[in-house]
Amino acid sequence: MLRVLSWDTTGVSGQIAAADGCTGQTAAWGWTQEKSQSEALFTAVVEICDRMNWKRESVQGLGVVVGPGSFTGLRVGIAVARAWKAIFPHVKSYSISSLELQHLASSRPGVGVIRPAATGEFYVRTQHDATGTDADGLVAMQDWRQFEEREQIQEWIAEGHLPAIQQLRLSLIQAWNPEALLHWTQRIADEDWVEVSRWVPHYLREPDAVRKRGLSAST
Questions:
Q1: 68 within 8 A of 201, measured Cβ to Cβ
Q2: Residue 70 sits in which domain range?
Q3: Which residue of 9, 66, 68, 127 sits 20 to 30 Å from the alpha carbon of 74, by its own alpha carbon?
Q4: How would residue 214 be classed by pLDDT, with cut points 50, 70 and 90?
Q5: Cis (ω within 30 of 0) for the bond into 163?
């Protein structure tokens, strides 16, 4: 059982969570990133450690949401985690994509996750019930109409998973589950998540999507 901190700085608002696998104690909240992402994250880390009554060196695991999402935000989140591990090398590293995070928190199979990407594009995560496998993709706005007509997407809409598609058409607003980060943090604290060797941003793990967005993987 572990003491775990995790954070998500990939959106317009940031989130942080803490879980103690031994005592069951948890804490979580979010903030609007009106100031710099780094300042907001540092403040949140200090506050949540104080609330949990943890010394910084007692943290045993760090979970970081590695995108897709805000380019600057995810780099800040990873940089803070790397600096923490440099000071406290015993800390275990955990990561998850922002799309997988939302899937993880869903209690219903076949849920789709959609998140705005670059102008005119959307990140889409689909779950294939038959095989139990997941896949991430990037859909351009001009292709969205065709994508929206797919049978699986229509099932998501009918079941109420993606009401924003009907209500806002192409101006998608995904109803992000605020409990998702805490749920994942608790799984790490219970040692029910695989440790990674290092934190890698989503745009480096998905080079095809990066090239499609016109970004450089070396950026």
A1: no
A2: 3-99+177-212
A3: 127
A4: very low
A5: no
